[in-house]
Amino acid sequence: MAKLNRYPADGRTAKVLVDLLDQAYLSNWVRLEASAEVSNAVSLITPSGERVIVYRPDFLDREVPEAFVALVIAHELGHHIEGDTAGLAVTQARPPKEAELRADAFAAKMLKVRGYREEQIVEALDLLVGKLPASTPTPEERRRLILKNYKRTRDLQTELGDSRAAYALLETKNSALATTKAEVEAELKKKSDDLDDHTSWAERAGKKDKKKTVLESVVMSVRLNDGDITDFTQPGKYTADVEITYHVLALEDTVEGDLEEVFHVSPESSTTVSWVPSTEKYSLHHKDPVRVAAFFRFSLKARERRTIQTSARYEYTLPLSPSRKTHGVEPSQADDAFFYINQYDYINELVLVIRSSKPLREPMKGDALLEREVDNFKIGSTPLLQSESGYSVATFRWRNLEPRQIAGLLIRR
């Protein structure tokens, strides 16, 4: 296939893919783009190895219901899951009819687990028949298979419990047509390390490393209060509010002071940081304009979970230095970067969200960065950019972070 003229997906379609990937524990695994040069939608692996779903904008326009968008995107995601991609890098090995049916089956199960109702699926199928060219399998074959798998997924969730059924159906890469309880139980058995003792990656890694606690998830949310700034190269001030939510799991008993929070900025910058009271009792043990740190005054029992929220405010004095550099990132005077520095913890999932009241430029590959401190090895990715309630929102999600890793997000104004 010749090189496609591709451009970023619209916000609604991008959100549908993000939700599906999150459900399948595959965050940021596939990139979504639009192109007028495809007939409807297609799954590709580029020569560089990047997984992409490309759709035609007028095929998934605002007039079609969200369930239709979800059915199409989940179908294309099914091709990636099953290894039946085509296009810039062809991996398809199965006959076309089997490949299409397997992707349909996967899509049906995804939509059921995501909470779409049967009548929404039927409406989406009715629309799909009118939009697709004549092909094999026939529209009736596809309808029967999709509804069969949708209904069977409901039954499996009833028999096995939502989380176990969802895990087996969505994490298994080669069983999209599995429709019996025995088949799903067989897949569950393969995952006994994760399912039978209900341990996560972070918990297993933390136990092996003799950690007292692990973090099941971390969400770092940054709101840039920069709406009044018209020129970032001129004198002025603005603030950024940072809020971090931790979901902590204790692997053994903890005491007061075992958990610490630190916010800081580069001493060479013209930025200061101040502590904002958190949801927990704490004791500040370090406080100056460039670094604040506190120990939490509570203890946990082994296996106890607790949600902690911490906050800080950063104040910027403009203009910022044109030669700033931190963790290998060199933002311009109008750009900014925020980092989560993970010194000690095993983290199942880290999400970094930056909201700006200023329009943000399209992100580039490398604007989402993961770095190992021990050897400075870096992995660069492309964050997701969306609009939300008057804000431009840049987001990225990392999984399975180890101690001494740094995750960062660069935004471009």
Notes on the structure:
- The chain is an alpha+beta fold and 413 residues long.
- It folds into 2 domains: 7-193, Zincin-like, CATH 3.30.2010.10; 201-411, Immunoglobulin-like (Sandwich), CATH 2.60.40.
- The chain is built from 9 helices and 18 strands.
- It has helices spanning 11-23, 66-82, 96-114, 118-131, 139-160, 162-171, 181-190, 192-195, 201-208; strands at 7-8, 31-34, 41-45, 51-55, 213-225, 236-250, 260-264, 271-276, 282-288, 291-296, 305-318, 336-342, 347-356, 368-372, 378-381, 384-388, 391-401, 405-411.
- It has a 7-stranded mixed beta sheet. It has a 4-stranded mixed beta sheet with strand order 1-2-4-3, covered by helices on one side. It has a 4-stranded antiparallel beta sheet with strand order 12-18-14-15, with no helix packed on it.
- A hairpin with a 5-residue loop joins strand 3 (41-45) and strand 4.
- Helix 2 crosses helix 4 (118-131), helix 3 (96-114) crosses helix 5 and helix 4 packs antiparallel against helix 5 (139-160).
- The chain is globular, with a radius of gyration of 24 Å.
- The chain starts with 6 loop residues before the first strand and ends with a strand.
- The model is unreliable at 87-92, 159-179 and 191-198 (pLDDT under 50).
